[in-house]
User: Fold this.
Amino acid sequence: MIRLFRTRREEEMKPSLMELACRRCPHCLWCHQDEAFWQRFETLAPARRYSRGCFVAFEGDSPSGIWVLCRGRAELICGSEHREVLIRLCGPGETLGHTGLFSGQPYDVSVRCVEDCWVRFLAKEDLLKLLPAGHPLVLPLLTLLSAELHEARARVRMFGLRWSPASHLAWHLLRQGGMAASRNNPYRIALTIRQLARLTGFSPRTVQKYLAVFRREGVVGREDQTLWVKDPARLRQYLESFA
Assistant:
């Protein structure tokens, strides 16, 4: 396991009175439980603020619990000081660190904030107390693990079958779209060319080249720093021959 060049986690800041979107977040597994569960969860996992650039977790650390990203965006990265790979970007409501927690293996990625974030940490022993056998939240967590396994296999297929750069980029754009992409609804992605390049492993020039192709075909558009996927169904056609 390669450890990132940052050997010390940044000191987390004390929480302020800033209001979080908890209990209203549409994507969070934890927000939509009953009131008794929520009160226990909030007590065991108070929100902490991490500044932009701070590390929440490190690749290679022993699994100690899970994190719930309440506000802000973070990136999952792996590698070393000389070569860093961006796995994906995470947004509010996402649960992080659960794969290592259940497998017992060290964390295989680091979590770094790309903007100021509010994060909750739930220790492993508290999680086991909070989720006894048969708790209704166990199934969604297993579903989340299954989805990540499916994504990992898709990445292996992507490289094993030597997808074209256009197919590779299309897969990442659809991956960022989530539920909207699966329903073929238009959606927007707040990603820069540089971030897309890090996600795909291509140069920024290559990403711009194929985005230009997608724009000419009316599949995507761009407004400032936001990428607008207008036609997910047509974008998915780039993947059909590799399914």
About this structure: The helical segments are 35-44, 98-103, 124-130, 138-160, 165-182, 193-200, 204-216, 232-236. The radius of gyration is 19 Å. The CA atoms of residues 214 and 220 lie 6 Å apart. Residues 17-151 form a domain with the Jelly Rolls fold (CATH 2.60.120.10).
